[in-house]
Amino acid sequence: MTVKNAQGKWGRARFGGSSAQLLASCLAIAVLVSAALGWLFMVLRNGDRPLLAFGIMAAFTLPVTAALAWAVLVDRSTITGALEKPEDSVESVWYEKAASGAFTDILLVGGLGCTALTFLGTEGTAGLVLGGVVAFAMLDFGVRYLWHKKTAA
Fold first, then answer.
1. Which site from 89, 106, 115, 126 is most exposed, i.e. has the minimal number of CB atoms within 10 Å?
2. What phi and psi values does residue 122 have, to the nearest 5 degrees?
3. Strand (E) positions, 66-141?
4. Coil, helix or strand for 6?
């Protein structure tokens, strides 16, 4: 007789069953999704060695798709040590504050940058401009998150 809410290292599936059934389901889904991604890569690449391209893409995406399948299928309450409400943690508060501040900064810097570039008549490629915006956003968020973390302690 098994206990329904028994906790374990890998947890149990939302649809019931043991940890072994969860891991088998995740692996099956991962193999199918990785094979589909490998096939898509092989078709779109149109290279000399299509089976090699398929194999490499399927092999490299298999761990990621398995992890994503597990994250979707697992029941969090059955994982040993998992928080019941992770969204109520102090880290999520730091994340929300950093994200909202970074968003405000992106709007401000983006607007001022567009105005300045318009009056200066400077042009740039879309990839370079968008890459700069993304780099700024990531750096701004990271600095804000670390600052909130440091000041909270």
1. 126
2. -85, 140
3. 74-75
4. coil
For residue 80, give Cα distances in angstroms to 10, 12, 120. 8, 11, 58
Per-residue confidence in pLDDT tens, the chain, 153 aa: 444 555 666 666 667 777 778 788 889 999 999 999 999 999 888 778 889 999 999 999 999 999 999 888 887 677 776 667 777 778 888 999 999 999 999 999 999 988 988 899 888 888 888 899 999 999 999 999 999 999 986
The C-alpha angle 138, 132, 115, rounded to 5 degrees, equals 115
DSSP per-residue letters across 104-120: HHHHHHHHHHHHHHHHH
- CA pair distance 97, 144, nearest whole angstrom: 8
